[in-house]
Amino acid sequence: MERRMIAPGFVEDVLACLAAQGIEAAPLLRKVGLPAVVADPITGAEFGALWLAMAEAARDEFFGLGARPMRPGSFALMCQAALHTGTLGHALRRALRFLNVVLDEPQGRLVVQGAEAEVVLSSAAPRSAFAYRTYWLILLGLACWLIGRRIPLRQVEFACPAPAHRVDYRLFFGAPVHFDRKASRLSFDAAYLALPVIRSERALKVFLRGAPANLLVRYRHDAGLAGRLRAELRAAPPGQWPGVEEVAARFGLSPATLRRHLKAEGQGFAAIRDEVRAVAAQRLLRDSDRPIAAIAAELGYSEPGAFHRAFRKWTGLSPGGFRAAAG
């Protein structure tokens, strides 16, 4: 599993939910070993412990963000309902029906249009960005676990204003994020809907013992070809990355066979290259003061304009805007 750090702003969101329900935060923070003021990122395990403590105190696994409370134990029942469904598409539809019954609002539905799948949320009452983000976290965390791999998102939209000074909302999903839209939705490649659910009852027991901290993990098969390809790309500067023919030869495959195996894993050669390049770009912008043009050249772009366009597609921000917000 990947180690994931949680921005302090998300802890502030949780504490705001506590305050709205008249629950004192200090005892819960002490209970999970967090300071009274969380100024630095915390681990997924620490955030998960805080989630459990609040769910117990409020008797609501959805932080009081739905029209009705999601009583403790509801998430486990949803996992049971989605487990024996055959494919991700069936699992998502069953999980959405479960959440619709339990929460009442927001209401979720799966929409497939050509090669794109969307989970669309609607609510008669206004909802915060944190409410939608928590819904996505629960649903997407379960979906990735069920098929044993990360589901790359194409776009995330929120039917509410952007939280002030919260670039972490734009970075969390690894996809362009937009606010003030007519509906809240996230989109991904519809091919993932046909992937099989690979988990067992025994695996579910292990998963639930680690929930909700493991919802913050994007599962994937690192032993598969997609994982090997990522390792190959990370081992070389982007300007020196091998093409599909060279990678296929290193793996002892033909290019067509490599593409076929990657497709079977729900991946694509170009998409993985973009993913690794996007992570490298964010790291260089965040951790160095190098000129943006120099970073663009290091990442293999012939001119800065192409890098700007690609980076805005990945994050919804310009490279300069990302650096300013991250700094």
TrEMBL record:
Matching InterPro entries: AraC-type_N, Homeodomain-like_sf, HTH_AraC, HTH_AraC-typ_CS, Tscrpt_reg_AraC-type_HTH
Give one GO term, molecular function aspect.
transcription cis-regulatory region binding
Task: Determine the domain of life of the protein's source.
Answer: Bacteria
Q: Which UniProt keywords apply?
A: DNA-binding, Transcription, Transcription regulation
Give the record's GO CC terms.
cytosol
Which intervals hold domain HTH araC/xylS-type? 244-325
Q: RNA-binding as a keyword?
A: no
- What protein name is recorded for this chain? AraC family transcriptional regulator
- Per the UniProt record, the source organism is Paenirhodobacter hankyongi
